[in-house]
Specification:
By secondary structure, the chain is mostly beta strands. It is built from 4 helices and 38 strands. Helix content is about 10%, strand content about 45%.
């Protein structure tokens, strides 16, 4: 049976290659998704040959127009080299945008841009796709170091946007599918919580005004690198769809980002965060999962997060934040976010600055989350900080913390802190775990239990974080 399957794949590959002639095939490196050997993108190829020096804006726009006219499956191909790019927006593209590789095809944001020419109430991303089915790979997008690209002195909102509608255009299917693979995004950190380019990649709808209806988007991001961004990837106002950040052996790397991945105001969505590496600075976060609800639309199924096989390298501050506020705002739905946090490595630096308290996970207003088989190393304040606050009678409840290993870590307060807003948690078989239980009807087995009545102030507080969230969507340009 195995031999027959191998023969079938072999002949299928030969047929695919035969169907593509020299002028309409692009051979991509083996990323393990399309074929067992090299991935073949088959379609009419439109190569970009810059005619205006290094500025490819006009040439790239023309290539997309030609590719769209040629039909689905067409390829826009960028050569090896260093180029500049201004704003570009593409509607209903069903094809691929490919370069020669990270560090080989390098696109730098053009300076002197008139950022006020962006259509009214759009966020202003360098490249925007609205509608379609897009595959993008093998290039570097970077912000010019030490420059202000907008002629009014402002900073760029972001590099890449996938939307099903914006302030002036709605896709014909009200949907977009996108896969971004092997792309590097490089900004510049200008200070504590300020960056030259705020967001590397955003998905949702590209308008500062409309919050409803939510968007329908499927997104996959693999083998990408995010350097010194305010937010690496951001997802907001989504209804239905799947968002995949990394897959087994094909994770992404986030370096020195204020918040590597941000998720907010979503319903009916499944998220997978797998095999990524998060190198988090002192004042940063790896994941911000904050499902506040500012849009009146009904949820019909549980959203979910699978957070598995990731490596979190923390220098103070937070690993990630989990908050399911719809349990408060929409209690009649009774559809909590299903969080599964398993087989991750949390590495806390012993060299964190004095006064910095490492809080690996902050989780509140959640129901039924599972933390299993995670490993913790290094020195911090709290490992799992459950329900530092609550609202009304909404507890963090029915959670399970099982099989986690704290044997190579030291926490000043506790490895596991169940605050007073916890209820009906099971904490079982966690290695060398110091536990403080201030909650109701929690069960702790095979752990070290300690009892404290009061803890000093810590930074930032949940209230600080929520207040920040109220004004942060889409970066510092939010109005």
């Amino acid at each position: 049976m195995k031999t027959m399957k191998s023969l079938f794949l072999f002949f299928a590959g030969l047929c695919l290659i035969a169907a593509c002639n020299k002028d309409n095939q692009v051979i991509m490196p083996d990323y393990g998704f399309q074929t067992q050997n090299n991935a073949i993108i088959c379609g009419k190829v439109f190569k970009v040959h810059p005619t205006n020096g290094t500025d490819i804006t006009a040439d790239l726009k023309q290539a997309f127009d030609d590719a769209k006219a040629a039909g689905p499956g067409s390829v826009v191909q960028l050569p090896k080299g260093n180029f500049e790019l201004g704003f570009i927006e593409i509607h209903e593209f069903y094809g691929s945008l490919v370069g020669a590789g990270i560090g080989k095809t390098v696109i730098t944001v053009k300076t002197g841009l008139d950022c006020n020419t962006i259509e009214q109430n759009q966020w202003g991303f360098l490249i925007s796709f609205v509608g379609g089915d897009v595959f993008m790979s093998d290039m570097t997008l970077k912000y010019p170091k030490g420059e202000s690209v907008c002629n009014d002195g402002s900073t760029l909102t972001g590099f890449l946007f996938f939307a099903d509608y914006n302030a002036v255009y709605t896709s014909k299917n009200k949907y977009i599918n996108a896969w971004v693979n092997n792309v590097e995004f490089t900004g510049e950190k200008l200070g504590d919580w300020w960056y030259s380019c705020w967001t590397a990649m955003d998905e949702g709808h590209d308008t500062k005004v409309a919050e409803s209806p939510r968007s329908h988007i499927d997104l996959k991001v693999t083998n990408c690198i995010f350097n010194e961004m305010g937010w690496g990837t951001q997802t907001g106002y989504i209804d239905e769809g799947t968002v995949i950040l990394g897959s087994k052996n094909h994770g992404n790397t986030y370096n020195n980002c204020a918040e590597a991945a941000v998720f907010y105001d979503f319903i009916n969505v499944g998220f997978q965060i797998v095999d990524n590496k998060f190198n988090v600075p002192v004042s940063g976060w790896a994941l911000d999962m904050d499902n506040t609800s500012s849009v009146v639309e009904t949820q019909t199924k549980n959203p979910s997060f699978i957070i598995e096989g990731n490596e979190f390298n923390l220098v103070g501050a937070y690993g990630f934040w989990m908050h399911d506020h719809r349990l408060v705002s929409n209690p009649e739905e009774n559809l909590p976010v299903l969080f599964q946090v398993r087989n991750n490595k949390f590495n806390l630096s012993d060299d964190a600055p004095t006064g910095t308290k490492s809080l690996v996970v902050d989780s509140y207003e959640v129901r039924g989350p599972v933390f299993s088989d995670n490993q913790f190393t290094g020195t911090g304040d709290i490992g799992l900080n459950i329900a530092p606050s609550g609202q009304g009678d909404v507890y963090a409840e029915d959670g399970l913390i099982i099989g986690n290993n704290f044997s190579r870590s030291t926490f000043a307060t506790a490895a596991i802190l169940l605050n007073e807003w916890t209820k009906d948690w099971n904490v079982i078989g966690n290695v060398n775990a110091s536990v403080i239980d201030q909650g109701t009807d929690n069960v702790i087995k095979n752990c070290i239990i300690r009892h404290h009545d009061h803890f000093g102030q810590r930074w930032p507080s949940p209230e600080d974080h929520m207040n920040f969230n109220k004004g942060k969507f889409r970066g510092p340009h939010h109005e």
